[in-house]
TrEMBL record:
One of its GO terms (cellular component) is nucleus. It comes from Leucocoprinus leucothites. Residues 119-1167 form the RecF/RecN/SMC N-terminal domain. Pfam families: SMC_N. One of its GO terms (molecular function) is single-stranded DNA binding. Keywords: Coiled coil. This is Structural maintenance of chromosomes protein 5.
Length: 1213
């Protein structure tokens, strides 16, 4: 069945009747008008501020209303943004850009009236409600009308799908295959777009399949890709995805629901210069980069400041450490030189003794040769004596072994004799043992008979053990069940205890919190918790750990500093920054180190934390004095210095002076009393420090003197805000209410817990009574079982006793008799006597050998004694004959002893020196070597000269005549190299004493100092580089904003005028306002509307206004964009739903006027209904959708023929 959509009249021909020359003249006039408007834009802004706006008085009155509905000048920018513009212009006035045109031109219109990118022809097959349709829209307004369900919105779908825009734009199906008509396997869309000047039109066909999500394209009959189609659409600036230019039926509500930020971006794309969007994106990107850079810069600045503070604190320690290093090196060099010099002295003495020892030894050898014959005889006799001594020692050892063996044999003989005596004793006691054995046998027999009689007695009657076990098992089971109940109660009690403990703790916490609300310190602590958690937790930690510190450590000024006179609070707070307000102040280095160690360097708070700490050694001389005396300050109109109005601990005032200059910053409440020029001269005097700050009224004046040139005074001013941190703040009532509600809830919970406790205690008492009864039953059963066990145990005990007695009786009976034992003992006695005889025989034989050998040993001993006597006589004879040799030998012996002692001492000192050198720093050894080399060479030469002087009897003249001069100090010797050893030792002890006074040994402080210095250098370099990037980014932002903002403001101003005028015409009020923001991504356009006299302007949202109001606002806003739009075509679908007739008529007539101008672009208005007596234009084209199941075939459905018949019947022209 055919479907048809055709023009209702000859509009297609009429649209092309306007002469081309006339069109060009109108375009030229419009361009001239635009340029004139740009030149007078500033005047227009003033007119707009003064309320000179055309329209109905009622509408104009409504339009000049701000967001709260109050009457204000109608401006699209905020004062803050104007100030930002002024600052930018002051900085770089040469870079300001001329205002952009408020209206933008599309591509040039062709002779047929179409502009490039507008739709020339649409052809659909098997697409949604259509089997087949083909129609040609006009180049201006196209009004598509038809009943609901005929396929009007299908045309919007066809434009979106056919030009390869995503289906999600339509708010319907998300897959392209869903747009194939139901029951059909495939279909297509074909859209012909006007081509660029001099180029053919673009015919884009898209093939769709019902069973596939994929599709294909052809461009002018040739296959192409979707990417190529997208590129062509971008070249023609087709914006189907922009709600400001393409608003499908299902997306009408989405327009009002768009965020103001999205509305700004879409408005730029639809009505702004092509570059506005790219400039905006650049600003967003640059702004984000700038924020990140500034955040990083602030973070590293804080880190650098902290590091610099640590470096300043460690500087004195590092200086003392370096001084200690110098002293240690000096002491090490001196100690090495002293030890080496001692060794050198000992070595020289050793060399001298060695020479004397060698000379004396030669003299002794010479005298020794004279007594050589006697000495030879003496040596022969001594050698013979040694041989006799060796022989005597060997024989003596052999005799010792024989004596040892003799003793062993003798001991054996004694043992045998004792054995014989013992055997005789046993024979004598055998009779007595037998009598005792017989008595024991009778005793055991009597006991056995008595035990058997006892066993035969009958046992007393007892209960059945199995019955008792059953009773016991039943009682145990009942006790186990009670135990289970007890466990349940215990668990219930533990849960109750946990609840009660938590409720008690919560109750205590709530009470403490409520008490703290009435306490200034408590309020400040609560505020500090919100402001900076690490500082809050550190304050709590400090209050409970004050015993760790030598002196009081002051909490941050925010906590312990007040300004009693509230009039000065703002001024004082302006002089101290937030970091200083959170600074902990210590009074000695040990305390600042302790605080940093526990909080910043380790996890003293149970986590990583970072707080600001401060310490400087108290020294008033380090402070710059106050710039004015009290009298001069009063004369200039000041009330006093900031320090005069502060109450705080005395120790904290050093921090306020040193870091915040409270003693130098003057304050005057009444700025009219202060002569700013005179005050600048007073605080800027070079002798007063060359600059300071002072406060007059609500203005901070920062006076500085230039460091170069004429050293002129500069004054920077800024307004100071109201005090926020130094005021006594109250607790949020909602927080107090919540705390009191928590207290009441905790009290109720405690009451409930108490009732629970009583119930649990009652249960426990009942179960305990039951347990006592069961325990009594179990004990009774145990007693009865014990009675049975005792009876059984007695029987077993008697049986065991009987068995034991029988075994003992059998043992006694099995013992051998007296005769057997007597024979055995006599046999042993005979064996021992034979062994005794053999031992005596062996002892006799050994004695026969020992006696002759002992006689020979005695004779050898006598010979040895004779030899020793002879040797002694010869030695005395030789000594008597050679007294001179003896004297020389004695002198040699004494000298040799001294030589050996000196040698040993030198060797000991050498080992000691090597140990010392091994322990010393390798850097010390070269300097010690240099000094010792100079001393060694000099003192060695001096010793040789002294030896030569001694050789000539102390006559220096003789040495001079021999050409031997006293050595002079070496030229390369330094001061102190050749001093005496005593002076070296004094210098070494002095260095050691200085080292003992200087206890700075901690190298970790130096490493930390170097690391902090390196970190500061790295941070400084990184911050300088980042500052360059910040400056570059700010310049890029400035340049881009100077290009973007004027065009944006001009565009919004034009939209605002048209939007407000449109609302004026319907007796309502509307406004469009550009809302700047530091974050360029948050710049937005606010649409505010007012439909009733008794309400204020309200922001357009997706919920606040009714559907009709939203639709009206949407179409009026889109119409305001129409003259600015540079897209080739726009579309709105059923925007008039919910409007009243008056608004709908106004919208229709306004749209016809706007979209049918000579320079208007193509526009599609889809509507299901029309009001009577609407305005129409010869350039607009009305397209009636004649589609449905009961539409006649082509021959019977000629719409043009029907139209001609209607005109003829009604006499229409």
């Amino acid at each position: 069945m055919a479907r048809r959509l055709a023009p209702t009249s000859d509009e297609e021909a009429n649209a092309q009747e306007a002469p081309q020359q006339q069109q060009q003249e109108e375009e030229a006039q419009d361009e001239a008008a635009d340029e004139e408007q740009d030149a007078e834009g500033e005047g227009d802004d003033r007119d707009e501020e003064e309320g000179q706006h055309t329209g109905t008085p009622k509408g104009a009155k409504r339009r000049r209303i701000n967001g709260d509905g109050d009457s204000v000048p109608s401006r699209a920018v905020s004062q803050e943004d104007d100030e930002a513009e002024d600052e930018d212009e002051d900085e770089q006035p040469s870079q300001s850009q001329p205002a952009q045109k408020s209206e933008f031109k599309t591509l040039p219109r062709d002779t047929d009236g179409y502009i490039p990118g507008s739709i020339v022809r649409v052809q659909l097959k098997n697409f949604l409600t259509y089997d087949f349709v083909k129609f040609k829209p006009g180049p201006y307004l196209n009004m598509v009308v038809g009943p609901n369900g005929t396929g009007k919105s299908s045309i919007a779908c066809a434009l979106c799908i056919g030009l390869n825009f995503p289906p999600s734009i339509l708010g319907r199906a998300n897959e392209v295959n869903k747009f194939v008509k139901i029951g059909k396997e495939e279909g297509y869309t074909e859209i012909e777009l006007k081509g660029l000047p001099g180029k053919p039109n673009l015919v884009i066909r898209r093939y769709l399949k019902a069973d596939s999500k994929s599709s294909s394209f052809t461009l002018n009959g040739k296959s192409t890709s979707g990417k190529d189609i997208n590129q062509r659409m971008a070249e023609l600036n087709v914006q189907v995805g922009n709600l400001c230019t393409f608003l499908p039926q299902d997306k009408v509500s989405s327009f009002a629901a768009m965020s103001p930020q999205e509305l700004l971006r879409e408005t730029q794309r639809a009505a702004g210069d092509d570059r506005l969007t790219s400039w905006h994106e650049d600003l967003i990107k640059f702004g984000k980069e700038l924020r990140e850079l500034n955040t990083k810069q602030e973070s590293e600045e804080a880190a650098r400041t902290q590091a610099q503070q640590r470096v300043d604190m460690m500087e004195n320690t590092v200086r003392l450490f370096n001084e200690r290093k110098v002293l240690e090196r000096k002491q090490a060099i001196l100690s090495c030189v002293i030890e080496l010099d001692k060794y050198r002295t000992k070595r020289i003495n050793y060399s001298r003794l060695k020479k004397k020892q060698r000379a004396m030894n030669a003299k002794v050898q010479k005298l020794k040769q004279k007594n050589q014959p006697v000495r030879a005889r003496l040596e022969a006799m001594q050698e013979e004596g040694k041989e006799m001594q060796r022989q005597y020692q060997a024989d003596q050892n052999l005799q010792g072994k024989r004596v040892k063996k003799f003793g062993e044999i003798y001991n054996k003989l004694e043992d045998l004799e004792e054995g014989v005596d013992l055997a005789y004793q046993k024979l004598e006691t055998l009779k007595k043992d037998e009598e005792k054995r017989q008595k024991d046998i009778k005793k055991f027999q009597i006991e056995i008979e008595a035990t058997e009689a006892e066993i035969e007695k009958p046992l007393p009657e007892t209960e059945d053990v199995d019955v008792l076990k059953a009773e016991e098992s039943q009682a145990q089971q009942e006790r186990w069940q009670l135990s289970e109940q007890t466990g349940d109660i215990e668990r219930e009690y533990r849960a109750h205890f946990d609840r009660r403990s938590k409720a008690t703790q919560d109750h205590q916490d709530a009470e403490n919190m409520i008490k703290s609300f009435d306490n200034v310190d408590g309020v400040k602590l609560q505020n500090m918790l919100k402001w900076h958690r690490d500082t809050h937790d550190a304050i709590i930690w400090l209050r409970s750990h004050r015993h760790l510190f030598k002196m009081p450590v002051f909490e941050p000024p925010y906590m312990c500093m007040t300004v009693p006179d509230t009039r000065y609070q703002a001024g004082v707070e302006a002089l101290i920054n937030s970091a200083q307000l959170r600074t902990f102040v210590a009074q000695c280095k040990e305390d600042i180190d302790t605080l940093n160690h526990h909080i910043n360097d380790s996890q003293g708070l149970g986590r990583k934390a970072r707080i600001v700490t401060w310490f400087r050694q108290y020294n008033e001389n380090q402070l710059t004095s106050a710039p004015m005396s009290r009298e001069e300050m009063k004369q200039l109109g000041f009330d006093g210095y900031a320090l005069d109005y502060v109450e705080c601990p005395e120790g904290l005032k050093w921090f306020l002076k040193r870091e915040c200059n409270f003693h130098r910053n003057a304050i005057a409440l009444n700025e009219r009393n202060v002569n700013i020029g005179a005050a600048m001269e007073a605080v800027g005097r070079p002798e007063a420090g060359g600059g300071a700050s002072f406060i007059s009224g609500k203005t901070m004046n920062i006076v500085q003197r230039s460091r170069y040139g004429s050293r002129a005074l500069n004054n920077m001013t800024r307004d100071i805000p109201n005090a926020r941190n130094l005021t006594i703040q109250t607790v949020d009532p909602e927080v107090r209410r919540q705390a009191e509600e928590s207290l009441r809830a905790c009290a109720q919970q405690l009451a409930i817990c108490e009732e629970e406790r009583k119930g649990i205690e009652n249960k426990k008492a009942v179960i305990k009574a039951e347990e006592a009864k069961i325990e009594e039953r179990i004990n009774n059963i145990k007693k009865r079982k014990d009675a049975i066990r005792q009876v059984e145990a007695r029987k077993v005990s008697l049986e065991n006793k009987l068995k034991r007695l029988n075994q003992q009786l059998i043992g006694l009976k099995k013992q051998p008799g007296v005769e057997q034992q007597s024979k055995k003992l006599k046999r042993e006695l005979g064996q021992k006597n034979f062994a005794r005889a053999d031992t005596i025989k062996e002892l006799t034989t050994l004695m026969k050998t020992f006696i002759p050998e002992q006689q020979d040993l005695t004779l050898l001993k006598l010979k040895l004694l004779q030899n020793q006597a002879n040797c002694q006589v010869l030695e005395e004879l030789m000594q008597q004959k050679d007294d001179k040799f003896n004297q020389a030998y004695a002198a040699y012996t004494e000298l040799n002893s001294r030589y050996k002692a000196s040698k040993a001492e030198s060797e000991r000192l050498l080992v000691h020196i090597r140990e010392i050198l091994a322990e010393r720093d390798p850097e010390v050894i070269p300097e010690a070597d240099r000094i010792i080399y100079i001393r060694d060479e000099y003192f060695k030469g001096l010793a040789e000269w002294e030896d030569a002087l001694e050789a000539v009897g102390g006559d220096e003249g003789e040495l001079w005549r021999q050409g031997i001069e006293k050595p002079a100090p070496p030229e390369d010797a330094q001061e102190g190299d050749l001093v005496s050893i005593e002076e070296l030792e004094i210098a070494c002890r002095t260095a050691q004493e200085q080292l003992e006074y200087n206890n700075n040994r901690d190298e970790s402080v130096v490493r930390s100092y170097e690391e902090k210095k390196k970190l500061i250098e790295q941070l400084t370099a990184a911050m300088e580089a980042r500052q360059t990037r910040i400056n570059d980014t700010e310049r890029r932002i400035k340049r881009t904003r100077d290009k973007w903002e004027p065009g944006l403001r001009a565009m919004i101003s034009s939209i605002r005028t048209k939007f407000s005028d449109a609302f004026d015409r319907i007796g309502c009020a509307g406004d469009v306002e550009l809302m700047p923001d530091p974050d360029y991504a948050q710049w937005r356009v606010d649409i505010k509307v007012k439909f009733r006299d008794n309400e204020k302007l309200q922001l357009l949202t997706g919920q606040r206004q009714s559907g009709g109001e939203r639709s009206l606002t949407t179409i009026l806003y889109l119409m305001s964009l129409t003259t600015l739009a540079h897209t080739p075509f726009s579309l709105v679908d059923e925007i008039n739903q919910g409007m009243d007739k008056r608004a709908e008529r106004m919208v229709h007539n306004s749209m016809v006027n706007v979209t049918c101008k000579e320079d208007s672009s193509q526009y599609f208005l889809i509507t299901p209904k029309l009001l009577p007596d609407l305005n129409y234009h010869r350039r607009m084209r009305v397209l009636c959708v004649n589609n449905g199941e009961w539409v006649a075939e082509n021959a019977n459905g000629d719409m043009k023929a029907l139209l001609r018949s209607y005109k003829a019947a009604h006499g229409a022209a």
